[in-house]
Design goal:
- The protein is an alpha+beta fold.
- It has one domain.
- 40% of the residues lie in helices and 19% in strands.
- β2, α5 and β3 form a beta-alpha-beta unit.
- The longest helix has 20 residues.
- The chain starts with a helix and ends with a strand.
């Protein structure tokens, strides 16, 4: 009888810590850290989106940035080996010159509103999609060139934030 109680106690002593510390629901269900822009930066990005949306529909995302707690603490304590870039991703666009003009217009405002000084550069990335254009050499046949023209082209524009 005492051996059964002792065996049950040992099994519980092993299984209880495993259940508490190795529980997949406690570790796997947590939200991954993501970059949350400040309210002022969010308003500037929204102004940029609204101004661009007058000509074409676009989405602006800032989710692909290093924003975990350890990166920010190391930055405050000046223990980082290298600084990350602040990435702003725009959805697929058609008028590249118009977007570049708006990026150059809003870039100083965005730099001013970045509260965290832990980023090296401000990087805008978007893909340019050009629609297939029909060749109307003959009125009977239409030829389409779908090779490289129909594939989106990735464009990255960067601005240095920190001065050495």
């Amino acid at each position: 009888m005492i051996k059964n109680i002792w065996a049950a106690f040992l099994i519980m002593a092993v299984l209880l810590p495993m259940f508490l510390f190795l529980n997949p629901f406690a570790w796997g269900m947590r939200r991954a850290p993501e970059y949350v822009p400040s309210v002022r930066l969010e308003t500037v990005l929204e102004q940029m989106r609204l101004e661009i949306s007058q000509e074409e529909q676009i989405q602006i995302d800032t989710y692909n940035n290093t924003a975990n707690l350890w990166y920010l603490r190391d930055c405050e304590n000046k223990k980082l080996d290298s600084l990350e870039n602040l990435n702003i991703e725009l959805s697929e666009i058609k008028n590249e010159a118009f977007i570049e003009e708006k990026i150059k217009k809003f870039e100083p405002l965005i730099q001013k509103e970045i509260e965290c000084k832990c980023y090296d550069s401000l990087v805008f990335s978007y893909s340019v999609h050009k629609e297939a254009k029909a060749d109307t050499k003959d009125s009977d046949t239409l030829e389409y060139d779908f090779q490289k023209e129909s594939e989106p082209r990735k464009v990255v524009i960067g601005f240095k934030i920190r001065k050495q």
